[in-house]
Write a structure and sequence with these properties.
With about 220 residues, the protein is mostly beta strands. The chain has one domain. The protein is built from 2 helices and 13 strands. A 5-stranded antiparallel β-sheet has the order 2-1-9-10-13, with helices on one face. A 4-stranded antiparallel β-sheet has the order 3-6-12-11, with no helix packed on it. A two-stranded antiparallel sheet has the order 4-5. The longest helix has 8 residues. The chain is globular and about 70 Å long. This is Phage tail protein. InterPro entries: Phage_TTP.
Length: about 220
Amino acid sequence: MATVGIKGLRMALIDPKTGKVIAGEDGFSENGIFDARGRVAQGLSEANITGIAPSVTKVWGNDILQDQSVGKSQPSVAASFNNLPHEILEKALGEESDGKGGYLDNASGVLPHIAMDLISSDLAGNEIHYCFYDGNMTQGDKNLQTSNENQSRVADALTYNPLAGSNGHMMKTYYAADEGFIDKNLIDEIFPGASDTTDTTPAGGSGSQTSDSGDGKSA
């Protein structure tokens, strides 16, 4: 089916031992979920999901195609944020704060675990959610250029590489127009343990279900 645009995303840090959302000071927000819909972070300009199709290896024998070996899909998301808050970015990358405004690069090789919900819509405006149970995020290169009469902006280019959830799957798609869809069920499965799933309207948006923590960043 056709999709229209990007409504934004929701993401949260996940405790790899418990599988639960990390909330509060150690998480992205009070309830753990960073809600980048509406005008939050000035939105996303792109979210390119690749590797959805599984690999297929052809099996030949006796000079004819006998079979096909179907592997598992290996999805990846390349997202471009117009203005991601630095405290969210650094937590997502696992970089260490010195408490004085500085962040050390992540030299441990251990990346934080992140659950993600990418949101688009169908032709009728109904939301489509491309959800990932777990994964790691890395940052692309920064190409800094001089400004002249025009600003030279460099967006936050991030790559998200999903991992399998406890059910063995990497990705799940939710359709808001489907009978029985409730956003709370999505939250409970993709962001388990998020403390607040009250329905309200996100900053700068309308008609979506999210939760209001007062900071415009949580779902």
